[in-house]
Structure formats: structure tokens, C-alpha cells
Write a structure and sequence with these properties.
Distance between the termini: 5 Å
Shape: globular
Radius of gyration: 16 Å
Number of strands: 10
Length: about 190
């Protein structure tokens, strides 16, 4: 478990909504932080599925893969029309950023084409929109006990169902929400 300090770089970490998070849009959310610096942070909510599946999106885009019955997540409230694919290592597409040894983020259409043809990454999650924080904003939220944090694990990121992700990450951290107090918000 990692203690939070404002100087920490939380890239490749999970943000887990604490019971003290004031914003109801993020209640019960697990966010994977793709970027964190002194200028701000960007992450994707991994457990808020949209009412549209991946197959429907691929079909709307005129791509193969309409049979894919996989969830698409609301990555956050910022630019909900923009697509993000969080995936395991391997090929690189037009707009791929490596986040860690086991995780990359691609924002270009070519990865969706490969996924639709069955040639994409083995492990992936697709999101529309992202969660963003300006300079110092995430640090303020961390200081007010709005979020719990821990280093991300790829098995939790890709192999845990979205329905179980919140509780599984908390259990992996050794946290029982019933035993949290407002003065303890960081694991």
C-alpha cells in the first residue's frame, strides 16, 4: 500500500472513491490513472458501463465486430465523445502511449479496427470520455480523503469483472469500508 503525498506521481495507480467523496458521479468508482504530473491528471473510470456495447459502437463505425458483447465504460465526464482503449502490451497503433510495462493507452481508430477483426490486444477495456484534474486539484481531493490509492495491478485491471472491481481492489488493499474513519483516507 502507498501513502499519498502531493509530490507522488500516481501514474499507473488506482484511485478508489472513498465514502467521503462529495461528487456523486464518482461514488463507488475505480479509476485507472494514465497520467499524473504537476500540471494535472487524467484517468479512466473502469466500472461504469454505458448502455451501449462495443459491438454496437463498432457497427456504428462501419467496422467488423458487431458480435462483440463487451461493455464500454464511461471513462469520465470530460469529452464523452472521445474513445480510449486501455490495453496490455504488444502492438502499437497510431496513437499509443505506454503507461507502464503492462499497460498502454491508445486513442486512434486503428485499434478498434483490429479488435473488431480479432487482431487487437488480448486484454483491453474501452472507455468514452475521461476523468481529468487540473493543477493541484487531485492533490486537494486526496488531502480531503476523497480517494484511496494503490499501485495498479494488471490482473485486477484486465481480469476482474467491472461488477467486482471496486470490492476486489479494496480487498486487495486490505481495506474494509466499514472500518474507515474520516481521518484515514489513504492506503
Amino acid at each position: 500500500m502507498t501513502a499519498n503525498r502531493s509530490a507522488d506521481n500516481l501514474r499507473d495507480h488506482f484511485l478508489i472513491a472513498s465514502p467521503y467523496l462529495a461528487d456523486p458521479r464518482f461514488h463507488g468508482s475505480v479509476i485507472y490513472l494514465c497520467e499524473h504530473s504537476s500540471e494535472g491528471a487524467l484517468g479512466l473510470v473502469l466500472n461504469r458501463p454505458l448502455d451501449i456495447g462495443l459491438g454496437e459502437i463498432l457497427e456504428q463505425l462501419g467496422m467488423d465486430g458487431k458480435e462483440l458483447d463487451l461493455p464500454v465504460f464511461l471513462g469520465g465526464p470530460v469529452q464523452p465523445e472521445r474513445g480510449f482503449v486501455l490495453h496490455g502490451p504488444g502492438s502499437h497503433w497510431q496513437s499509443t502511449s505506454v503507461i507502464s510495462e503492462g499497460v498502454a493507452l491508445t486513442t486512434s481508430r486503428d485499434i478498434l479496427e483490429d479488435i473488431g477483426r480479432g487482431q487487437g490486444p488480448q486484454d483491453f477495456r474501452v472507455a468514452l470520455g475521461y476523468s481529468g484534474w487540473g493543477e493541484g486539484q487531485l492533490e486537494e481531493e486526496l488531502a480531503s480523503n476523497s480517494w484511496l490509492t494503490c499501485p495498479a495491478k494488471t490482473d485486477l485491471l484486465f481480469a476482474t469483472s467491472w461488477q467486482d472491481l471496486y470490492q476486489t481492489v479494496l480487498t486487495d488493499m486490505g481495506i474494509d469500508l466499514n472500518q474507515l474513519s474520516e481521518s484515514i483516507g489513504h492506503a
